[in-house]
């Protein structure tokens, strides 16, 4: 543990590394890992469960009075009325993991009175550790990180997440993808939102957007972005996003250019804005097929 870090962040790092060790062991023989399907294209493995268990045990051993909000166990463990709540995704990118695609991470955040104060995103395949404490900056492997300095959207690389669950609005996403692709240097879909946000914080990508996210997908990564000098909100540019299931993040100038493009696709957009969403022409009226 580093004496220079906040004590709570040190404990979160210890928990994330312990979970990462479990994930790396599972990755050695991923075909033998037991997998359950929560819903179509939404999986949980025994590795998710074991990683979550060690994270919770580590956090509660140090802070038994804290609450827990975890992807697999919800609020079953920890204090139910604490102002301090650990928000945990033990393996963000489970679909990647079970296919042997090495893009996934551990995400741990501490919210105090509803505001995220500590954040850890750990990539066990690369041993990359992203950390942040509110007011103290964001770091990757103990090196200070900042969001990208690019200011022209057409030069930017943007991260995103494709819809994959039943009921997801695929047509709406295709509209967003079309509009963003035409205005940028490219889109990337790695498959782990917490790591996507960490990459925005580190300046590896210039922005990120996705819908259908849960609080544990965004909590840690959002603090990384803001502590690295970026902005995070929903598609309409409002700061209330953690419970709203849509996230837009980026360097300030890029964030400001993405909001006008994506706002009309937001579930919170005004009717007039939603009416501006491009409509596909009917067949026989200029449609290609």
Number of domains: 2
Can you tell me the CATH superfamily of the largest domain? Answer: Fructose-1,6-Bisphosphatase, subunit A, domain 1
What is the helical fraction, as a range of percent? 25-40%
Number of helices: 8
- Give Rg in angstroms: 19 Å
CATH architecture of the largest domain: 2-Layer Sandwich
Number of strands: 14
Q: What's the overall average pLDDT, rounded?
A: 89
Can you tell me the residue ranges where pLDDT is under 50 for at least 5 consecutive residues? 280-289
Note the run of SSEs as H and E.
HEEHEEHEEEEEEHEHEHEEHH
What is the CATH class name of the largest domain? Alpha Beta
Could you give a short account of the major beta sheet? 7 strands, mixed
Output the structural class.
alpha+beta
Amount of beta strand: 15-25%
Shape: globular
From the 3D structure, determine the CATH topology of the largest domain: Fructose-1,6-Bisphosphatase, Chain A, domain 1
How far is the N terminus from the C terminus? 60 Å
Biggest sheet strand line-up: 3-4-5-6-7-8-9
């Amino acid at each position: 543990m580093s004496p220079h870090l906040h004590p709570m962040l040190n404990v979160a790092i210890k928990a994330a590394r312990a979970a990462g060790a479990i994930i790396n062991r599972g990755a050695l023989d991923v075909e033998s890992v037991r997998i359950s399907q929560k819903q179509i294209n939404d999986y949980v493995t025994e590795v998710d469960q074991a990683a979550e268990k060690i994270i919770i045990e580590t956090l509660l051993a140090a802070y038994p009075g804290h609450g827990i909000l975890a992807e697999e166990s919800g609020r079953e463990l920890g204090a139910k009325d604490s102002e301090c709540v650990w928000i945990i995704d033990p393996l963000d990118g489970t679909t990647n993991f079970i296919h042997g695609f090495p893009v996934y991470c551990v995400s741990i955040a501490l919210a105090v009175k509803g505001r995220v104060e500590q954040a850890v995103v750990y990539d066990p395949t690369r041993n990359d550790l992203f950390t942040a404490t509110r007011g103290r900056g964001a770091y990757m492997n103990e090196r200070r990180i900042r969001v990208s300095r690019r200011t022209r959207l057409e030069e930017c690389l943007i991260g995103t997440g494709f819809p994959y669950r039943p009921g997801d609005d695929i047509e709406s996403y295709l509209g967003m993808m079309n509009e963003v692709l035409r205005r940028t240097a490219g889109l990337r879909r790695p498959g782990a939102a917490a790591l996507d946000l960490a990459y925005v914080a580190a300046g590896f990508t210039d922005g990120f957007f996705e819908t259908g996210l849960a609080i544990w997908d965004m909590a840690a990564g959002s603090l990384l972005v803001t502590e690295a000098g970026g902005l995070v909100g929903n598609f309409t540019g409002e700061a209330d996003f953690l419970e709203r299931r849509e996230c837009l993040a980026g360097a300030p100038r890029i964030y400001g250019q993405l909001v006008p493009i994506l706002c009309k696709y937001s579930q919170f957009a005004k009717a007039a804005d939603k009416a501006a969403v491009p409509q596909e022409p009917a067949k026989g009226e200029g449609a290609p097929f």
